[in-house]
Structure formats: structure tokens, C-alpha cells
Amino acid sequence: MVKLLSLAMLALAVHAAEDAWAKVQALKTGTEIRVYKKSSTQPVLAKFADAREDSLLIVVKNAEVAVPKGEIDRIDYRPPKPGGRVTKETKTTEEDPTKAKEPPAGMNGRQDGVGSSTSTSFSVQGKPDFETIYRRPAGKK
What we know:
This protein is α+β, with helices and mostly antiparallel strands. It has a domain at 2-83 and 124-135: Roll (SH3 type barrels), CATH 2.30.30.100. The chain is built from one helix and eight strands, in the order αββββββββ. The strands form two sheets. A six-stranded antiparallel β-sheet has the order 4-3-2-1-5-8, covered by helices on one side. Strands 6-7 form a two-stranded antiparallel sheet. It is rod-shaped and about 80 Å long. It starts with a helix and ends in a 6-residue tail after the last strand. 9% of the residues are buried.
């Protein structure tokens, strides 16, 4: 019974690893990724090119590099931001003509109808944080 449970858990772990690699394969070309390799303390910052069954193709400084799947400990990716990085905000305010106020300069004291003003601002949003998409299965070294 214990042996059967161990086999079932192993099969589940292998299936989860395959699902994680399938998520890597589904990334769009050009996605910003960090690749943590077994032999390195620092991640490799790159753009995703392609993921095959046995390797990951990345672009580092305009050069395409293949990293064997067995050398990868973890892969993080920066998810795309919905709506882009630039946001536009438009505000319109209307003034109440019945409200007493000082006449605007140069208008000879006349106030016809409702006054309004509109302002538009653009702001650049920061990049989203990296999220882990793949971890090497615990049993593999």
C-alpha cells in the first residue's frame, strides 16, 4: 500500500513538472525571463525565444543561447501588463454658473453659461514583478 502511494506521488510530481514546462513552452517570444542555473549564483536575465523538450532557447545581448533543461533550477518571467505601460487619465470639471464668484480678468465682468475645463495626464507604470513559472522537480539533480 505504501509503495503504491509512493508511486502515485512520484507520478503526480512528474506530471506537475511536465505541466510547468508546458507553461514555459507557452510563453510568448520576447518575454523577459530570469533563468537560474545549477552552477551559478546569479540568474541570467534574458528574453524568451523557444522551449523544446530538452532545452530552453534564450536571447542574451542579441545572441541566442541554448540552456539544457537539466541545468535549470528555476525560471521566472515578467507577466505582460494588461493595457500597456502608459495610462491616460482625463478629468473634466464644470463650474456652476449660479455660484457667486469674482469675474475673470479681461472679460468685462460678463459670465455667460457654464464654464468647464478638461485636463489629460499620461503616466508610465513600472514593470510588474517577476513570477516563478518553473522549478526543477525535487527528485532530479
